[in-house]
Amino acid sequence: MIVKEDGVAMGVLVLGGSRGIGRAIAVGLTEPGSTILVNYLGPDEEAQETQRLVQEKGGRAVLLRGNIASPEGAAEIAKLVSAEVDKLDTVVHCAVKTVSGPLLDADPEAFRQAVDVNAMSFLYAVQAVRPLLGAGSSVVYLSSRGARIALKDYASVGAPKAMAEAFVRYLAVELAAIGARANVVSPTAQDTAAFRDIFPNDYEQRLAEAARRSPSGRAVGLDDIVEVVRFLASPGAAMLQGQTIVLDGASTLAG
User: Fold this and answer.
1) pTM for the model
2) Contact, 249 vs 214, CB < 8 A?
3) Among 12, 25, 138, 214, which is disulfide-ready with 249 (CB 3.0 to 4.6 Å)?
4) What CATH number is associated with residue 210?
5) Residue 252 falls within a domain, yes or no?
6) Distance, CA of 72 to CA of 34 (rounded, Å)
7) 164-199 pLDDT, tens digit each
8) Does any domain span residue 251?
9) Which family does the similarity line name (predicted)?
10) Do 38 and 18 form a contact (C-beta atoms < 8 A)?
11) Is 60 exposed, middle or buried (0-12, 13-18, 19+ CB in 10 A)?
C-alpha cells in the first residue's frame, strides 16, 4: 500500500472495521507508516483491539465511531477522514446489519435499517469521500453468496448486498473517469458475529459444509480475503472494473 505519493498523505478506510472481516482487512493492509482509518459502530473495546493490532504492525490507526447509514452520518465520517489524509488509496465496505428470519415475516422498519446499513451506506460513503478519491484509488464492497441465491433467513443481508453489487457496476463506470475503480469481493461463509447472528443454531455445521464442499481442500480464510483486497488495490488491478470476484475455492463450480 502507498503511504505517501508526491507528498500526499494516503490512507485506507475500512467501513465496519472493528471486528471480523473488517478487522482482518484493516490489519492485513497495514504497512509501517500507513494510516488505517477504522469506522465502526459497535463496542469501543473491539475497535481498540483493531487499533492495537494495526499499531503492532507499525501503522497508525484512527478510530472513527459513527453511523454511515445516512447521508449525514457518512458526511461526518468523511469530514473526519479528510482531517487525517489527503487521499484515500483504498476504501473497503464491511459494515453489516442482520435481521434473521423469512422475508415474508420481516418487520418493515428493521428490514429497512438493514438495507440502509448493508447497501445504502456503501453509496453514501463513496459519495461522501469522493473528493479523496483519484487515480489509483480502489473501492471494494464485501458481498456474499446470498446476494445471488436465496439462503434461508438471509434476505436482510443477501438482498441489500445484491443492490450494492449493482451500485458497484455503476460506480465503476463513473469512477473510471478519474482513474479510480470499484469491485466486489464475495467470499464463502466466514465465522463472524454476523454469520452467527443469522444462523445461531447451525453456523458450525454450515462452516464445516463450506469447507467440505471445496475442491481446493479447505475453507476460504480471512487471509485469502485480505490478499484479494490487496490485489484490487494494486497497480495490477488498474483495469479491473465493476467485477464480482467470487472467492470460493471452486465450490460453486463443483455444484
Assistant:
1) 0.92
2) yes
3) 214
4) 3.40.50.720
5) no
6) 28
7) 999 999 999 999 999 999 999 999 877 777 777 777
8) no
9) Belongs to the short-chain dehydrogenases/reductases (SDR) family.
10) yes
11) middle
Does the residue 154 lie in any domain? yes
**Whether the Cβ atoms of residue 111 and residue 152 lie closer than 8 Å to each other:** no
Q: Inform me whether the pLDDT recorded for 3 exceeds 70.
A: no
Helix axes 44-56, 20-28, angle to 10 degrees: 20
Burial 118-137 (b: 16+ CB within 10 A, else e): bbbbbbbbbebbbebbbebb
Q: Please give the sequence-ordered ranges of beta strands (E in DSSP) within the chain, or none if there are none.
A: 4-5, 8-15, 35-40, 60-65, 87-93, 138-142, 181-187, 244-247
Looking at the DSSP bridge assignments, the partners of residue 8 are 5
Q: What is the pLDDT of residues 125-162, one digit of tens each?
A: 999 999 999 999 999 999 999 999 998 999 999 999 99
Q: The C-alpha cell of 115 is what?
A: 438495507
Burial of 201 (0-12, 13-18, 19+ CB in 10 A): exposed
How many degrees, rounded to 5, is the angle at CA 152 between CA 43 and CA 40? 15
The structural domain count of the chain equals 1
Asked if residue 106 has pLDDT above 80, the reply is yes
Residue-by-residue DSSP string for 143-199: --GGGTS--TT-HHHHHHHHHHHHHHHHHHHHHGGGT-EEEEEEE-----HHHHHHS
Count CA within 13 A, CB hemisphere, residue 143: 31
Whether residue 250 lies inside any domain: the answer is: no
Structural domain of residue 163, as residue ranges?
4-245
